[in-house]
Design brief:
Layout lengths: L1 H34 L3 H15 L2 H21 L6 H31 L9 H8 L1 H32 L1
Helix pairs in contact: 1-3, 1-6, 2-5, 3-4, 4-5, 4-6
Length: 164
């Protein structure tokens, strides 16, 4: 059981770090860079990146992996001193997951559904409908929540090491 405990906690920490890093990269590089582009570049580039991020590395190794491995880590650490740190990390990641599915993904999907930028008559309207400011604001929240969850899981590993 101890092997499953430590492997699940390590996997939760690593996948959480990957997700936090991806959201942070969008917060400090991708969206500020895209924000300085014209409407056609913004719509086309965002559509391409959103299509590219739906892949096994991000979805399985990060976004869904962080949820699954953190749940597994919580279950395998019931009654252990690491559990409170893991539990708070899990709650923060559930918040991150909900924000992503309720706010960011619907905007991403609507932007993709607008079609090829070369065929869009009013790119400014499509970009305005996307509501860049709202997407960025909520991405900052999920970046903070997932980064904090990553730190809590790293601390849970430390607690595990101290209690072994």
């Amino acid at each position: 059981m101890d092997t499953l405990r430590i492997v699940s906690l390590m996997a939760a920490t690593m996948t959480m770090g990957l997700v936090a890093g991806a959201f942070a990269l969008y917060a400090h590089t991708v969206m500020p860079g895209l924000g300085k582009t014209d409407d056609r570049t913004f719509v086309g580039a965002f559509q391409a990146m959103d299509r590219a991020i739906i892949n096994p590395w991000f979805m399985g190794g990060g976004f869904l992996g962080a949820l699954i491995f953190t749940i597994l880590a919580a279950v395998t650490h019931i009654g252990r001193p690491e559990l409170p740190w893991i539990a708070v990390a899990l709650v923060l990641y559930i918040v991150t997951f909900v924000i992503t599915m309720a706010i960011n993904v619907p905007r991403n999907d609507a932007l993709k559904a607008a079609g090829d930028p070369d065929g869009i008559a009013d790119l400014a309207a499509v970009r305005a409908e996307f509501d860049e400011a709202r997407w960025v604001r909520w991405n900052r929240v999920r970046t903070l929540a997932s980064t904090t969850a990553f730190g809590l899981l790293a601390w849970a590993l430390t607690v595990h090491g101290m209690s072994s």
